[in-house]
């Protein structure tokens, strides 16, 4: 489950936030398998989609994380949850996306596609209301 600013996100929803206000993020991982899983890492990568097949991940001047964008997960037991908290701070207006993925903790090799269970989150940053 993904919550942005306290609201559950799905692939069809657009979350609106204001530039300059920290936007709380919560990612809850539930292990529905029969075995414990881990260790691996959860990484959140913001990007802009130019709608022409190009994704711009070079956003250090537009978005910053409050805390880390990578969380290390040791083990999640069967039927148990693991919840991770963070926040984004948008410095400019625009439409942004958040790519959330898992990968093995000690290498850059990604887990199988069946593990990539989170769709990109669409966030629209607007001017602060005066």
UniProtKB/TrEMBL annotation:
All copies of domain Trs120/TRAPPC9 fourth Ig-like, residue ranges: 15-125
Protein name: TPPC9 protein
GO cellular component: trans-Golgi network
Taxonomic lineage of the native organism: Eukaryota, Metazoa, Chordata, Craniata, Vertebrata
Cross-referenced Pfam families: Ig_TRAPPC9-Trs120_4th
């Amino acid at each position: 489950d993904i919550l942005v600013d306290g609201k559950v996100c799905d692939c069809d929803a657009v979350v609106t936030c204001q530039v300059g206000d920290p936007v709380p993020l919560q990612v809850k991982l539930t292990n529905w398998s029969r075995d414990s899983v881990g260790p691996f890492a959860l990484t959140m990568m913001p990007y802009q989609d130019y709608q022409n097949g190009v994704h711009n991940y070079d956003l250090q001047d537009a978005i910053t994380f409050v805390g880390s964008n990578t969380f290390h997960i040791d083990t999640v037991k069967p039927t148990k949850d693991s919840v991770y908290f963070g926040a984004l701070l948008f410095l400019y207006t625009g439409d942004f996306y958040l790519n959330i993925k898992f990968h093995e903790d000690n290498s850059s090799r990604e887990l199988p596609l069946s593990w990539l269970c989170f769709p990109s989150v669409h966030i629209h940053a607007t001017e602060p209301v005066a």
